[in-house]
Amino acid sequence: MSPIIFFVTLVLGVVSATNSSSDYIQDVTTLPTEVLPQDIEVLPDDTEVLPTNEIFTALHTNYDTELSKLLAGLTEYFTEAQTDIKKLKKNRKAADTKIAGLEEEFETFYSEVRQNISRIDGKILHLTAVLATISQKVEALQTQSNTQLSGIRTDVASARNSIQSLTSSLNSLHQNVVTDIKLGPRQFNAVYRNNGYHDAYPWIITEVSNWNKDDFPDTVGRRQLLKKVGGVWRGMPAENS
Fold first, then answer.
1. What is the pTM of this model?
2. 95 forms bridges with which residues in the sheet?
3. Per the record's keyword annotation, is Signal included, yes or no (predicted)?
4. Where would I find the beta strands (DSSP E) of the chain?
């Protein structure tokens, strides 16, 4: 029920109650004693009774006072209600504004999310195509590598055999090839009235001296002819003559 309908109903009820009370008081005071109910106490004749119009005036004044209080309370209530309604309208307007802003932000966010998802889908498709191309290239490279690896293995085996043969040849050369030659320490012996030196390997005559410059040599010198084979110095052999 709205406040206005409630207020009108209340005023009509008060007025109706006032009229009914006045009529009832007037009717009761005019009834004969024998008509009154037995449980109603009848006042003695000498009891002072207020006139009907004074009773009605008192009741009317009382109702006016209560009605004024009621009207004041209703006015205060309506004022507070109007203030609350204004606040609610203001808050509702602010809430509607916030809701509209949130809806706009949500629409913007939703649009951005859809755009980002679309971009991501495009990138995923591109990456998928790139990965497929890379996979094909890797497979082709693997096939080519397997072929080349087979050839490389054959070449490596051949090179290993060649290296082994070369190593064997180098070892043989190291054991048999002369890598250096030199002359050993010098030895001296007298020739005049002495044996001198006989022919013997690996000695070679490196000096014949005639100190007094006569017709006969005085001393003879010799050295060993050495060769280096396999890191070892050895005497140079001579051919038999």
1. 0.32
2. none
3. yes
4. 178-183, 187-190, 203-209, 219-229, 232-235
What residues of the chain score a pLDDT lower than 50?
15, 18, 20-31, 33, 35-37, 40, 241
What pLDDT does residue 69 have?
Answer: 80
Q: How far apart are CA 81 and CA 74, in angstroms?
A: 10
Strands 219-229 and 232-235: antiparallel
Residues 70 and 100 in one domain: yes
In this structure, the answer to whether residues 59 and 172 fall within a common structural domain is yes
Q: Is residue 6 domain-resident?
A: no
- Residue-level pLDDT at 134: 93
In the block, tokens 């971009």 appear at: 119
User: 3-state class of 182 per DSSP?
Assistant: strand
Domain check: are 110 and 220 in the same one? Answer: no
Strand partners, 229: 178, 232
Query: DSSP 3-state assignment of 155?
Result: helix
CA dist 241 and 239 (Å) reads 6
Asked if 199 and 187 touch (Cβ cutoff 8 Å), the reply is no
Let me know whether 136 and 71 are in one domain: yes
Let me know whether 189 and 87 are in one domain: no
Together in a domain, 103 and 195:
no
Q: Which tokens in the block code for residue 99?
A: 């809701």
Domain that holds residue 188: 178-235
Tally of structural domains, the chain = 2
Contacts of 55 (CB under 8 A, 6+ apart): 25
